[in-house]
Amino acid sequence: MHLLLRAFALAAALLPLASWAENAPQPADRALVPFDFPVRPAEQRPSCAFDNLKLPSNARVLAAGAYSGRALDYQIDQSGHQATRIDVAVNSPARPVVLMLGAYEPTVWAIGWSPGTRIAAVLVSGYHRQAVAGLKKTVPVLNSSHDNKGPCGYFYIGDNEQLGRLNPLAQRVFGKPVEMVYPARDGRAALGDPLPEGVQLLTSSATPPDAFRDAKAPLAGPAGIQDAVRRGLLRPATSADADAWAQASARAAPKNDLPPVAGQDPMKAHRPAWRDAYVVLQPMTYPAGLYGAHSLSFVVPKGVPMPTGNPGHSDVYDFNTLSCVGALCRTR
Questions:
Q1: Tens digit of pLDDT for each residue in 95-150?
Q2: For a disulfide at 203, which of 20, 115, 134, 238, Cβ 3.0-4.6 Å?
Q3: CB atoms near residue 275 (< 10 Å)
Q4: Phi then psi for 52, rounded to 5 degrees?
């Protein structure tokens, strides 16, 4: 028993020594060196909210938009898409209004309102750049698109999937749901109460729609083509250009041992059926908006570089490679 007590006493005496050994300074590891890593301050992301916006309890949330508006002959961003415009007329003299405006394509929103109507705020969104014109400078605007990586994400007025984004966002930003959605037709939408006959709408000249034109980008659509012709970048193609393409294509085609057939033009199979065609004369950028009925054929002579940008639905006949690029190459 005496020996057992002595063993317990010895163990108790050694415990502080073990604890001290664990916490004692250890010899420096000479292999450790400073690790160079740039530490950036935390970025403060903008919030999906208006600063200090206090809405009256009777404010109404009205939404408007479409996939796109009326085509403009210029661009407002670097997406390569032709800009569109939607005119919005607001009539709500009895209650203040907040607007939710959305379009997929790059769009300029021109805002007008009836006497007595107060627009308290505007939330504008879309896939590409959106710009709001005609508002008083005192009206706050929250612009959140896909392209600007906005704090509210993006929406536009379209199918039910897109409409389903409106109320949650309206509740988040304005604390109430959307009262009514007004699809824009032919680039126009009238919001609120029916407009009285003969009413004179108001707008602000401080931010006109043309203020958002990208001066560095070429004109869009047919206007861009005509501008390129005036500047000597393009010229209309002729039948001689089509013959030259047919002859060059025939020379490059694999040879076959077929006898000629009376009444058949051996060049016909190689001659392109151009509708509207232009020959590229100098380095240039395709105008935006060359889709659908605005699509063309471009002919790039040997030694001339391919234009930059997006040809849209147009086809491009390149003499440098004797190849045609575009969805319509096989049908024209």
A1: 999 999 999 999 999 999 999 999 999 999 999 999 999 999 999 999 999 999 99
A2: 134
A3: 11
A4: 55, 35
Domain boundaries, given as residue ranges, for the chain: 60-212, 221-252+267-325
The predicted model scores a pTM of: 0.72
**What is the Cα 233 distance to its own chain's centre?**
27
Q: In sequence order, what DSSP letters do the residues of 63-132 get, joined into one string? A: EEEES--EEPSS-SSSSSPPPEEEEEEEE-TTS-EEEEEEESS-EEEEEEE-TT--EEEEEEEESS-EEE
Structure token pair of residue 227: 């501008």
Rg, C-alpha atoms of the chain? 34
Residue type, 186: D
For 48, counting Cβ atoms within 10 Å of its Cβ (0-12 exposed, 13-18 middle, 19+ buried), the class is: middle
How would DSSP label each residue in 12-54?
HHHHHHHHHHHHSPPPP-TT--------PPPP-PPPSS-TT--
Tokens of 187: 């680039």
242-266 pLDDT, tens per residue?
A: 999 988 888 876 666 556 666 555 5
